[in-house]
Design brief:
It is built from 7 helices and 16 strands. By secondary structure, the chain is mainly beta. The protein has a domain of 263 residues: Porin (Beta Barrel). Strands 1-2-3-4-5-6-7-8-9-10-11-12-13-14-15-16 form a 16-stranded antiparallel β-barrel. A hairpin with a 2-residue loop joins strand 4 and strand 5. The longest helix is centred in the N-terminal third of the chain and has 11 residues. It is globular and about 65 Å long. It starts with a helix and ends with a strand.
């Protein structure tokens, strides 16, 4: 094998010294007058890769796994094309690229929108963008989140539509969006009719509003949001979040509260519990999420994430508690290079899923848990 490789190298090496005048381009690919445009363009390549060892225990789950995993790999392009026109594009390579039947883009294209500056305080966004949901769990790029809580693990975050932001005061900013509530047509998402009151609407639309506040010189920040989406005809989801962040020198503390009432279960957690091919209806999800960060030194940072999620299902005109999940994620970051954003991480992910007696007796549910150790790196590379 080595001899064959050396032979190929020796055969092709002389070609490097052949005259190439005749093969040269008469003009550069990027003319000099066009190079100035690239000064306002940013190319990013983001990676999170790691080695994981995990176990599932409980109910019918008895599984061990060890593997390397590409948790996040994406190429992004953003920039300023005009003094009032910006654009953002991001392609995530480890997502399904199948073109969605409603918005006509693949799931791997997460961002593809333009940002128009109407005035110094008003911006208009058009295209496929991130929904203006609140909370700081959602504020992080998926690059930095090893495990989401149940709602944001299943939420449709990147949707096509239009949005507007208004910087009312220096420390207060409001946003409003009108978006598609899903990326697929009714037939592709739900298949055959699963209930008499689940029908395709003329426009599956979502309205999202949020408020960003800044207090005490930035030490206390908030991201609140309220949204209502029309998933199917005359039935939808009302979702609000309250996000809070306290930051002081080396310490940061974030807390989110989430409330999602879904006339048709879009998160599919309760639908999976039913297990009979029907879509769960009149579902309620209530969540708490807490994350603390502390910088021990310029090279070492410690994180601790705690979360709970409670799910309720309407049975006989009353909401009955079905499931509660718990999560904890202690993490250590190590930055080996000065003035270069590259981090190694070591994390433990513990998730515990407990079902109520009603769910166990009526839906054959069982409690289970997942324990996982990950070691890897996070690299948000700015190429140029």
């Amino acid at each position: 094998m080595i001899r064959s490789f050396v032979l190929v190298v020796l055969l092709f090496f002389p070609l490097l010294f052949f005259p190439q005048v005749n093969d040269s381009l008469r003009e550069p690919i990027f003319p000099v007058e066009k190079m100035k445009l690239l000064e306002n363009i940013n190319f990013t390549f983001d990676m999170r890769m790691g080695f994981q060892a995990y176990t599932f225990r409980g109910g019918d789950n008895y599984y061990n796994g060890i593997q390397f995993q590409n948790g996040f790999t994406a190429l992004g392009i953003s920039g300023k094309l005009h003094e009032r026109v910006n654009f953002t594009f991001r392609n995530r390579f480890n997502k399904n690229s199948e073109v969605q039947t409603l918005d006509r883009l693949g799931n791997d294209i997460e961002l593809a929108y333009i940002d128009l500056e109407v005035s110094p305080t008003v911006n208009v966004l058009l295209g496929k963008m991130i929904a203006f949901y609140g909370g700081y769990e959602y504020e992080f790029s998926p690059l930095y989140v090893l495990e989401y809580n149940d709602v944001y693990n299943n939420v449709l975050a990147f949707v096509t539509g239009a949005g507007i932001t208004y910087q009312v005061f220096e420390n207060h900013k409001f946003g409003l969006q009108v978006l598609n509530s899903r990326t697929m047509h009714y037939d592709d998402l739900y298949g055959d009719i699963v209930a008499e009151n689940i029908q395709e609407p003329d426009w599956p639309v979502a309205f999202v509003g949020n408020w960003r506040g800044n207090f005490f010189g930035g030490k206390l920040q908030t991201i609140y949001s309220l949204s209502h989406s029309n998933e199917v005809k005359r039935r939808g989801t009302t979702f609000f979040t309250l996000g809070h962040k306290y930051q002081d020198r080396d310490f940061t503390l974030m807390y989110d509260f989430h409330y999602s009432f879904e006339q048709v279960d879009t998160k599919r957690v309760m639908t999976a519990l039913l297990g009979d091919g029907s879509i769960a209806e009149n579902v309620l999800y209530i969540e708490n999420w807490l994350r603390a960060e502390y910088s021990f030194s310029p090279r070492f940072q410690g994180l601790l994430t705690l979360m709970t999620s409670s799910a309720y299902l309407e049975v006989e005109d009353s909401q009955k508690h079905m499931r509660r999940s718990y999560g904890m994620i202690p993490t250590i970051y190590y930055s080996p290079f000065k003035n270069f954003n590259f981090k190694f991480f070591l994390a433990y992910i513990g998730r515990y899923f407990d079902h109520s007696n009603y769910a166990i007796e009526n839906f054959a549910a069982s409690n289970y848990n997942k324990n996982e150790v990950r070691i890897g790196f996070i690299a948000p590379f700015l190429l140029f």
